[in-house]
Amino acid sequence: MSWSRVMPARPVVAVAGVTGAVGIEMLKTLEQRGFPASRVVALASSRSAGKRLPFANGELIVEEMTESSFEGVHIALFSAGAAVSKAMAPAANAAGCVVIDNSSAFRMDDTVPLVVPEVNASDLAWHSGVIANPNCSTIQMVVVLSPLHEIAPIRRVVVSTYQATSGAGQAAMDELYDQTRDFLEGRELAPAAFAHRIAFNCIPQIDVFLNDGSTKEEWKMVVETKKIMHAPQVEIAATCVRVPVLRCHSECLNIEFEADVTVAEARAALESASGITVIDDPVSLSYPMPALLEGSDDVYVGRLRADESVSHGLALWIVADQLRKGAALNAVQIAEALLPR
Amino acid sequence: MSWSRVMPARPVVAVAGVTGAVGIEMLKTLEQRGFPASRVVALASSRSAGKRLPFANGELIVEEMTESSFEGVHIALFSAGAAVSKAMAPAANAAGCVVIDNSSAFRMDDTVPLVVPEVNASDLAWHSGVIANPNCSTIQMVVVLSPLHEIAPIRRVVVSTYQATSGAGQAAMDELYDQTRDFLEGRELAPAAFAHRIAFNCIPQIDVFLNDGSTKEEWKMVVETKKIMHAPQVEIAATCVRVPVLRCHSECLNIEFEADVTVAEARAALESASGITVIDDPVSLSYPMPALLEGSDDVYVGRLRADESVSHGLALWIVADQLRKGAALNAVQIAEALLPR
Lengths: 341, 341
Description:
Mean pLDDT of chain A: 97
Helix content of chain A: 25-40%
Radius of gyration of chain A: 20 Å
Oligomer: homodimer
Order of helices and strands of chain A: EHEEEEEHEHEHEHHEEHEHEEH
Distance between the termini of chain A: 22 Å
Largest interface: A-B, 57 and 57 residues
Strand order of the largest sheet of chain A: 5-2-1-6-7-8
Number of helices of chain A: 9
CATH architecture of the largest domain in chain A: 2-Layer Sandwich
CATH class of the largest domain in chain A: Alpha Beta
Low-confidence stretches of chain A: none
Number of strands of chain A: 14
């Protein structure tokens, strides 16, 4: 059963979880892209109700999210955690509101499309009220894999991530800053947002451990990629690592294709793909780096080279702003794709 | 032609480049391990001559290194850059002094053994006056690959590194600290030791670029590993990345074997190998991390799990102190292996 409600040209949009790191970025993204909302409703927990947030030339007053918050709302961008999404999505749908959910609540639900517009916008056709936004580390990877998979089928991907603290929310970003300052000043450290010290450290664990020794973040990169790309046959090995970086995730990819792909062919495919910028000039020491790319929208690719350790191998390095393409921007792009043509 | 001089039980040892980050660590390592030196000679450039360095219960006065510095010296640990090694090694050898060289000057010279004592101590038998200490990122990897290669031949390794600033010397370590403080205080940043900002950033380039789009650091990990392990057939794909960490390198390894290796077999082989400590307990969120392991001697292994994306695959995460096992300790271990039994 797919969704039959008609989307108006100027819908009412709610942002649920509007005071979080992603929620704030969702508001900013709606404004910057001139999303044609007739009205924006700012929703959060009762703790934040009454808070004022700047938006466009005015401000929004945060309302407490309840089951009746979605009357008259056409699109709700959810980023308040999986439990809230599960609790509130039915009420939103019952009110005729499409949910674009940034949590993991519905991503692997067979009845819910998991969408990165550059890759599988066509899956929006069969949604029935809920559309899932993929995990941040998955989004930036599939944006890059998809145009390459079109020139030659991908057999296997080995990915190692260098993930920013923003993926764990505003408190985690603050912890990196505050803890780094404490460390430099010789004060005692008390990790809270992370299990271990993050200042000047790498933590090879993101999300909880699963029984097979992998983490849930690593599992997400595997199963979400297959679903988004409609490619269950692509093999993926992921290791996810938190690094002391603020808000851009980096990923090192070793890709094995079924047939030969030259570096020139790969570069041409990436350069002509939507949502990708290639920064790759060894002579000027140019390659994507988190410090360069905060607040940017594209997925940036560099260090393109043959991987001679395997037949048909290619290696590359990608960076994207976790809060933008990895979360808020992808959700807003999905909302844009729902607008009438 | 191999070396025929007899090594005394209490040799005179010189440390050449004694004021650098590795040189200081070499002195510390000689002292901590109770190396039976009858005398330690501290050598550096004229700039540092006369400087006093604490050693054992006394101090050493730094002497300017010249071609005549090696008279009466039996073992010289060099860490003053490739140009100095090339210029001074012949004079040292002529004086009867064995050179253990931490630079890249001789590593790929077919007449020079490249040695990690846990892996190929037997190659010391054919040295002719110069023994090369491998690159730091290579050392910690081969310590781990070697015992695994013994239980099943390794076909291919994909490695992504998370390398500390210590690998670029004391000035680079200082730059990470100072630049991080400047960044937190909103001051302007002026990268010097690195091509780009390192504070809260990842730089996907270590050493210079080669024509094939790889870097020299990546090339070193490939060719040095094959030489040390006597395994030209092992395929290696490396991506080397600098992260804002002080002095421990981390590496993510995806290993493909010729035959099946269970996680339990791999763990047992690693636990019984010399120079390795396994820290791997998901329940207590225990795994190796740079912040835990500064100043430690072993190579630490964790996140051991099957890599189901390929036949006979294994994934793991390793951390070692770049200045210890990655440089000074390995050199001192080589010196120890040269002592008469």
